[in-house]
């Protein structure tokens, strides 16, 4: 399997080089028609705009996921949409998790907090563990891996946490201390306040916001990556995912040549890779 992937990549590199050479042969100085000064200025403007189109957006799209640990729809979204989208373009997204959903919070006479969750006490326990993990794990990729791993099977929340922490190399003791202390309840209360502050209010879980907007929920629940790209494109130049991918494998000189290719060719290469 590895040899096939390696061979496919070699063929892809050869294809890229051939395309670059063909393109340069038709666009080099020997084939360029004579142009006056005004025409040169037009070319310069077009080249500048093309270079600007390759620059990534100044900041990633802020994706907030309001979810429940035992919610089947939340599980489906995290595993089938959120994780694949992040893996395709991690620089394009900043993810914040809010594990609470349609729960309620009450303060007892002694000042302690109590929660009622849509899927029962086990979900409250799982939401609380998620809250502690989200606070403790700072690496975005590892945090997402932990949430995706735990939500896969949260019927026994403590066991799920222990297993997923070992699989992802996450330190267990500090998170366990969080869960066993009143701090975990305070964290869950904060997630509840964030959920209740949403306008319009939550009617479906999961609810997703992109840069603070709840627009097009049905669409982004089915195609999060496409929705994130639309938001990024709407507020500024969209990152060139072809160059982002190839940068891991090719030398800078080759990437500079690829930047000169028309946008359609770059997009064609991207879909070939995916």
From TrEMBL:
Any one Pfam family match given in the protein's UniProt record, by short name: GILT
Keywords from the UniProt entry: Glycoprotein
Organism whose genome encodes this protein: Anopheles albimanus (New world malaria mosquito)
Tree of life domain: Eukaryota
Similarity-based family: Belongs to the GILT family.
Cross-referenced InterPro entries: Interferon-induced_GILT, Thioredoxin-like_sf
Protein name as it appears in the record: Gamma-interferon-inducible lysosomal thiol reductase
Gene3D superfamilies xref list: Glutaredoxin
Listed GO MF terms: oxidoreductase activity, acting on a sulfur group of donors, disulfide as acceptor
